[in-house]
Each structure stands twice: as structure tokens, then as C-alpha cells.
Amino acid sequence: MKNEKSLKTLYRPCPICQAKEGEVLHTQQFLLSDTHLLPSEYDIVYCPHCGFVFADTPAAQSTYNRFYQEMSKYEDKHTASGGGDTIYDLHRIEETANTIANFINNKEAKILDIGCGNGGILFALKQKGFSNIMGFDPSLNCVKTIREKGIKAVQGNLFEKTLSKQFDFIILSHVFEHICDLSTAVDNVHSLLAEKGCVYIETPNAAQYTDFYIVPYYYFDTEHINHFDTDAHRNLFEKHHFKYIASATKTMTVAENQEYPAVYSLFEKTNGNNSHFCNTQTLRNSILNYIDLSKNDHPITKLQSNIQNQKPIVIWGAGNYTARILQETNLGEANILFFVDSDSKKWGMHILEKEVVSPEALFKLTDNTFDIVVISALFSSEISKQIKNRGLKNTIICL
After folding, report:
1. Along the 399 residues of the chain, how does pLDDT read in single tens digits?
2. Cβ-contact 325, 346 below 8 angstroms
3. CA-CA distance, 199 to 245, in Å (whole number)?
4. Cα(first)–Cα(last) distance of the chain, in Å?
5. How far apart are CA 199 and CA 185, in angstroms?
6. Which residues 6+ apart lie within 8 Å of 90 measured at CB?
7. H helices of 193-254, where?
8. Given Cys at both, which of 33, 50, 59, 60 links 17, Cβ 3.0 to 4.6 Å?
9. C-alpha span between 238 and 23 (Å, rounded)
10. 31 close to 352: Cβ distance less than 8 angstroms
11. Which residues, at least 6 apart from 127, have a Cβ–Cβ distance to it below 8 Å?
């Protein structure tokens, strides 16, 4: 594959090895709501030194801390994963809890789930007989939900000295892809672990983005700013005094007819230096293949008639997929009446000066002269069924 190498001085030094230059693989842009806290543009870069691929975001860790405290979508049961509120999420959580339980031989072990959301993994572990468990999340509403399940929980983030005691086992399930300052985060995890304590990390598996293609650039969103494979897990944790124990890839069913790639690793806390970077360029090549696949996918063609004829549309979906399409195509030229989203955190926001409203606001309308355009990477089938079941006769177009 031909690729013109373009090195740049990074806003954000490599989160694993702190290299200050990276190769630009792709520039990702978003058209965001008027009050969105995260950057509307960043480069996807490859670190020639350690092989990591990540977003060169200009935002600091403090911005991401604020975003997850104030705007967390993970507290809304209608849109969140991690709480076991859908059949797919529940199955994923039970599988993860089974894997974690197999790594812990003491039901009295002190377990901390960092970035626990609504606490699905913790609840599953509680049902398996683990009693000394605690959740830790920036969202106060998530913390309240966990406490309602009879589980201890504390509000905070990895960059605050909120927790003082040490734990035997720490869970980082789909957390580190969101972290800007990975080096400090791993050091803080190390300090929270007792001697010989273990950490379980699970992230999306960037080595398999092409194998699990969903929509163009799906895996490059405003929140997922680190792209891990097994080697990246090892490079990060071994550099910070952890010993590699095990790892494996897994496939998660996240929606009807939709699977998602993940990779997990287990590390044990040590005091020695285990660092040795593994850089095979495998991750770089996998990401480049995914970028090429995305470039050749043009779902917006389904809407060209509406755009040309200015037939009114309502867009269901105010997330990352919509933000990418609005920025990269002529969708913004369409006659958009308003946006709909199930995430209550988005209600009242404006995109292109059009309001984001709840599904109920749409269902109250009797006007069927506009088309409903569903822009959802994972749940377009479920949303279409919901619209039809509520009796709306509008034409539905799924991108």
C-alpha cells in the first residue's frame, strides 16, 4: 500500500513512549453541537518509535475529565453500555465477569472497577460471590445507580487523589481508549494496587477494525483517542512496572447483526523494569487498511435526492456518526427540521442551529411530509422498528 509519510510535531506526545513526532495517517473532523467540549478535529498518528496509533488531540486531560463528569452518555440507560440494560450488553458483561472471575482465586479480594459506568460488571461479580467490590466513575449519576444496587461507589477520576486504600484487582474495561494522559493513568493504577495486585484492561482491538467494519471511520470518534492491540497493551504497562500475565482477543455482539472486536490483557504489579517496546508496524498497516475501506464507503448517496429537492428531513442521531457525515459531506445542505436523539444529555443542544429533541417530541407529531433519516452506526434497525411501532408513516432512510 502506498502512503506518503507525513511527520508532524505532536500536540500530544506519544502516550506510551513520549515521542514528540508522529506520522499522520488520517485527519478526522466532526461538526459538533454548540456546547460540545471535545475537539472538532484531530490527526490519527502513528508513532515510529513504539508503534502506537492514537489521536493527536489538542485537548488536555482536564477537558476529558470535565466531559465525562458533565456529559457522560454512560449514565443514560437508553443509550449507555456497561450497565447490562440490553440483552447484548448483559451477555457481554457476563462474559467479561466470567473472564475476570477466573483470574481471581479469592472471593474476598478487594476489587476496584475504574470507569465502571452503571456498574454492570460489578453487579455480575457480586452475583458470583465477590463481596469486597467498589466502583469508581466521574459521573455522579452512575455512582448513584451503583449504590442503588447495593455496591460501594465513589465519584472521581484517575487524576485525582480520591482513593487512599489499595486493591488486589483493578478493572479497566473500555476505559483506556478514552484517556489522554495514559502515562499518569497507569502510574496511578500502579499506586492503587497492593503488592502482586493485578490489573485487567480491555479495549477495542484496533488490529481488527477492518474485519469488523461498521460505517466509515466509526472507530475514530470524539472520545476514542487511543487505538490498542495486544502489543500496545504490553508496551504501555510493561513500561510502568507491570509484568505481563495473559491476553486474548474477543468478539462482542453489540447490536442486532453487529459484532465488535476487543482485546484484553492481565498484568501483575511489580517494582522492576519490564520495558521492551515491540514495534512490528502491524497496527499501522491495519489502521491504513481501515482508512482505505472507509474512504470508499459513501452512505450519503442515499440522500442526494432529498438534498437536491430540499424535501424536509428529520435526522435521528446526534452522535459521532452524524458529526462526521455533516462535516465531510453535503448533508448540511439538506432541509433539516431538527435532530432526534435518545441521549437525554443532548436534548436542547443545537447542531447547525437546529435543536436536538427527544424521541417523544418526534412521536407527538402527526406530520408525515418529512422523511426520517436514521444515522446510527449500531442501532438503525432497532430505531426503525421503534418509529414504525409508534405509528409514524414517514419514509425512513437509514444511512
Report:
1. 334 467 899 999 999 999 999 999 999 999 999 889 999 999 999 999 999 999 999 999 999 999 988 876 655 555 555 555 678 788 899 999 999 999 999 999 999 999 999 999 999 999 999 999 999 999 999 999 999 989 999 999 999 888 988 999 999 999 999 999 999 999 999 999 999 999 999 999 999 999 999 999 999 999 999 999 999 999 999 999 999 999 999 999 888 778 999 999 999 999 877 776 677 688 999 999 999 999 999 999 999 999 999 999 999 999 999 999 999 999 999 999 999 999 988 999 999 999 999 999 999 998 989 999 999 999 999 999 999 999 999 999 999
2. no
3. 10
4. 29
5. 12
6. 84, 120
7. 230-239
8. 50
9. 24
10. yes
11. none
Q: If you search the block for the grid coordinates 506519544, which residue do you land on?
A: 14
Q: How does DSSP classify residue 321?
A: H
In this structure, is the dihedral angle defined by the CA atoms of residues 261, 266, 269 and 270, taken in order, positive or negative? negative
Amino acid 196 reads K
Q: Which three cell numbers stand for residue 392?
A: 409514524
pTM exceeds 0.85, yes or no: yes
